[in-house]
TrEMBL record:
GO cellular component terms, semicolon-separated: plasma membrane
Protein name (database record): Monosaccharide ABC transporter membrane protein, CUT2 family
Keywords: Cell membrane, Membrane, Transmembrane, Transmembrane helix
Domain of life: Bacteria
InterPro entries (UniProt xref): ABC_transp_permease
Length: 325
């Protein structure tokens, strides 16, 4: 009776397994290496207060990026999320300070403003046949303009319920709790719902998804509406941190949200993206900024570093795609 032995082709060495893990989790490996390097450079980097500070700094971008993940999975893009976040916060503050509505209602209104703005973008893209880049670029301009119109270019006082979004709850910062909640919702939608599976199908091949009977246009409207809703939540958290609605809040945040998704492994070609990867991407950006601030590196050079990280992430994604095909 012969004993079957594993052939070299079927063996998986520890080094090969480690290499495959690094290939599939490049953002996580990069985050761990970066944290180790910053700890060596400045031991106070890994102190509890600083770690909490990093989480708070990452929260708004992460929430925006979770909504952006839905869009990128469908091979789309949403350039309006920063402006929509500012608009939601400003309308909420206007309803409280000028109209006198209850605080809890103004918080809900801020979320609904984001949802409505996203749905309008989705309708233009899905039914108006606008390219996602153009449709959301137009919404970015409209939302920012409306923010300035509502505020007359000046900050507005926000309701206590909105301010609570930037405070603490049982010694835990609310922005971090909101980031965790948004992450769970993003994961659930992508992995446990028909809508999530439809997103991946549309991002993989839109025409094949349509021919298989998926309501592609309705799904796209829902995707951009979700992105807007997450932007509204991010706007509430940002306004809570500032204790006011600022007319220029959220400027360029859409670029950080896209970067977080790409760094986390989402492909701009569509069909791939994970909530966990997006979270790691957002934290990685926050760690870079935090570490460079501690090291007293100029903010100008920080932008250079962030740009290089994004370029490396996209290059790594291309390399990984070639290795897996």
């Amino acid at each position: 009776m012969s004993t079957a032995t594993a052939t070299p082709a079927t063996r998986t060495s520890p080094g090969r397994r480690l290499g495959q893990f690094a290939l599939n989790n490049g953002a996580l490996v990069g985050l761990l290496v970066l944290c180790l390097a910053l700890f060596i450079a400045t031991p106070r980097f890994l102190t509890i207060p600083n770690i909490i500070n990093i989480g708070i700094q990452a929260a708004v971008v992460a929430i925006l990026a979770f909504g952006m993940t839905f869009v990128i999975v469908t091979a789309g893009i949403d350039l309006s999320v920063g402006s929509v976040a500012a608009l939601g916060a400003m309308v909420s503050a206007f309803m409280f300070s000028d109209i006198g509505l209850p605080g809890w209602l103004t918080l809900l209104i801020g979320l609904l403003v984001g949802l409505a703005a996203g749905a309008v973008s989705g309708l233009g893209i899905a039914y108006g046949k606008l390219p996602a880049f153009i449709g959301t670029l137009a919404m970015m301009s409209v939302a920012r303009g409306l923010t300035l119109v509502v505020s007359d270019g000046t900050p507005l006082k926000t309701a206590p319920s909105v301010n609570a979004m930037g405070g603490d709850l049982a010694f835990l910062p609310v922005p971090i709790l909101m980031m965790a909640l948004a992450g769970v919702v993003c994961w659930f939608v992508l992995n446990r719902t028909i809508l999530g599976r439809s997103m991946y199908a549309i991002g993989g091949n839109t025409e094949a998804a349509r021919l298989s009977g998926l309501p592609v246009r309705k799904v796209l409207v829902a995707v951009y509406a979700l992105s807007g809703l997450f932007a509204g939540l991010a706007g509430m958290v940002l306004a809570g941190r500032l204790s006011s609605a600022q007319p220029q809040a959220g400027v360029s945040y859409e670029l950080d949200a896209i970067a977080a998704c790409v760094i986390g492994g989402a492909s701009l070609a569509g069909g791939s993206g994970r909530a966990s990867g997006t979270l790691i991407g957002a934290i990685l950006l926050a760690v870079i900024r935090n570490g460079l601030n501690i090291l007293n590196v100029s903010s100008f050079w920080q932008q250079v570093v962030i740009g290089l990280v994004i370029a490396l992430a996209v290059g790594f994604d291309v390399f990984r795609a070639k290795k897996t095909h």
